[in-house]
Design a protein that fits this description.
Elements lengths: L4 E10 L2 E11 L4 E5 L6 H8 L7 E6 L2 E2 L5 H6 L2 E4 L11 H9 L10 H14 L15 H14 L4 E5 L7 H16 L3 E5 L3 H7 L2 E6 L2 E7 L5 H9 L17 E10 L4 E9 L3 E5 L6 H8 L7 E6 L2 E3 L4 H6 L2 E4 L3 H5 L6 H6 L3 H4 L7 H14 L16 H13 L5 E5 L7 H16 L3 E5 L3 H7 L2 E6 L2 E7 L4 H8 L5
Parallel strand pairs: 3-8, 3-9, 6-7, 7-8, 13-18, 13-19, 16-17, 17-18
Antiparallel strand pairs: 1-2, 1-4, 4-5, 9-10, 11-12, 11-14, 14-15, 19-20
Helix pairs in contact: 3-4, 3-5, 4-5
Length: 496
């Protein structure tokens, strides 16, 4: 029986850069085939070839044994190929039902719209995947996980035979992740072939039947998941052992940098948070999505200012009513969504890095582009950013390198307290190890770090202490040697 999808010796170059170097890949009906590799390994280019966004320079593509030439996105959609990207491609000002209709209904200027049918179809699709989302809700009102569930509903409604999932759980809660896994298994049972891309290796071992690893545009190998260990898989991806993903602390924390006393923010749903963060310490902030972690960070950075309680910085009580005031007090915040709030993709790296320090880098009317470039070069070197130089655009970087640039922007402000919201979300295992080493090095240099993460191994491996939030408040601060069960039990409100 021929594969559902088969690519043979596919190559693709962009100028002098060879993104794919003779990659072969196949997918069977009723199979979950994981596609892994570091950022820049060629995964995105391969997916764009499969969806018709890129034409290969050489090689062939076949569907059910039938060769396909000059594939376009429209043709791929008609052939039953659907891709659910990490950043949902939905229209924010339209409702959920309208977005689903745009994917499923034929385009016609003269066709009469049946609004009742649209609503019912959207309701049925959302119910099928267990999504508690109103068809009448505007997409902009949905969280990122909610938008991803709408994308899945669109793919199911279109009767897709091949579904590509690109980092689908990157912003999902544990409950939503379990729901997604159930959907994936249901699709597999109905004969749908699924290409699953994720940096979370535990998901690969839970879901995938086979795994193909790309490195530097080439296929390293395809194996049954049951025949591999996590260590072997990591070595295939990065070409080396990654033995110190979580570097150990080498110095004791110093004086208290920030103290919170009964801090509350009604707009963010945060109440009565009391907490201390010390110089040289990485304080991990754990809890389920919706527990109030990001809302606390936004209150500390003045995006949604606190309305009760005290913020004490270096022994002095302060108020923070705007991000500008937070920066002036030495507080920096690297947000969760680097594409929306971290890096401006069409802007050069040098301008991205100096954006928060314009008054310092450009005093008065002087435009010191040489100083800007020199500062950018220093951060590129110190953070080991892989780029052609400071004039390269932010959008040209891999996810891990974008995160380093986002970090560089706020390090340029010379902060006392660095708040990191999901610092390694959506980056590969090699880049994750590099970012962890940077964070640990910053702490050893005396910076106080508040690290928010939904990745429990990351919280346990990186934190000097672990603060757990639930329902908008702090429930406990645990020592670094705590285990997964203890942290999750506290996050869920269970009594040990």
């Amino acid at each position: 029986m021929s594969p559902l999808l088969e690519l043979t010796s596919v190559t693709k170059s962009f100028g002098a850069v060879r993104a794919l170097k003779g990659v072969s890949f196949d997918l069977h009906a009723g199979e979950v085939h994981a596609l892994l590799g570091e950022n820049g390994a060629g995964k995105s280019t391969l997916i764009k070839v499969i969806t018709g966004a890129h034409q290969p320079d050489s090689g062939s593509l076949a569907l059910n044994g039938q060769p396909i030439a000059n594939l376009t996105p429209a043709a791929a959609h008609k052939l039953g190929i659907a891709c659910i990207y990490q950043q949902p491609a939905l229209f924010p000002d339209l409702t959920v039902a309208e977005n689903i209709a745009l994917r499923l209904e034929p385009a016609s200027a003269l066709r009469k719209i049946n609004w009742h049918e649209r609503h019912d179809r959207a309701t049925q699709l959302l119910q099928r995947i267990g999504a508690n989302i109103s068809p009448d809700a505007e997409v902009r009102s949905l969280s990122m996980p909610g938008q991803q569930l709408v994308e899945i509903a669109c793919a199911i409604g279109a009767g897709a035979r091949i579904v590509i999932m690109d980092e689908p759980t990157a912003s999902l809660t544990q409950k939503e992740t379990h729901l997604l896994f159930a959907i994936v298994r249901d699709l597999r049972e109905t004969g749908v072939g699924i290409i699953y891309i994720s940096h979370r290796l535990e998901e690969i071992f839970q879901l995938a039947d086979r795994v193909t690893v790309l490195r530097d545009g080439e296929s390293v190998g395809t194996n049954k998941v049951d025949d591999l260990t996590e260590t072997e898989l990591i070595k295939m991806m990065v070409g080396r052992e990654v033995s110190a993903i979580y570097p150990a602390a080498e110095s004791a924390p110093g004086e208290i940098v920030l103290a919170l006393k009964n801090l509350s923010c009604a707009a963010g749903g945060v109440h009565d948070v009391s907490l201390e963060i010390r110089a040289g310490e990485i304080l991990g902030l754990s809890g389920l999505v919706g527990a109030g972690r990001t809302e606390l960070a936004r209150a500390l950075f003045g995006i949604t200012p606190a309305d009760a309680g005290e913020i004490i910085l270096k022994g002095q009580r302060i108020t923070i009513s705007s991000p500008q005031e937070a920066v002036a007090h030495g507080i920096a915040y690297v947000p969760e969504d680097r594409r929306r709030h971290g890096v401006i993709l069409p802007m050069p790296i040098a301008q991205n890095i100096t954006m928060a320090i314009h008054p310092r880098i450009f005093p008065g009317t002087w435009l010191r582009f040489g100083a800007e470039r020199q500062l950018a070069l220093e951060f590129i070197r110190d953070l080991d950013v892989r780029t052609s130089g400071p004039d390269a655009l932010g959008g040209s970087l891999s996810g891990g390198n974008q995160q380093k640039i986002s970090l560089a922007r706020w390090l340029a402000t010379k902060p006392r307290l660095l708040i990191l919201d999901e610092p390694t979300q959506g980056v590969d295992v090699g880049a994750k190890s590099e970012i962890h080493k940077i964070i640990r090095r910053l702490a050893q240099q005396g910076l106080a770090v508040l690290m928010i993460s939904s990745d429990l191994p990351e919280i346990l491996g990186m934190s000097d202490r672990i603060a757990v939030m639930r329902g908008g408040t702090l429930v406990v601060v645990l020592p670094s040697k705590s285990d997964t069960h203890t942290v999750m039990a506290k996050a869920l409100g269970q009594t040990l």
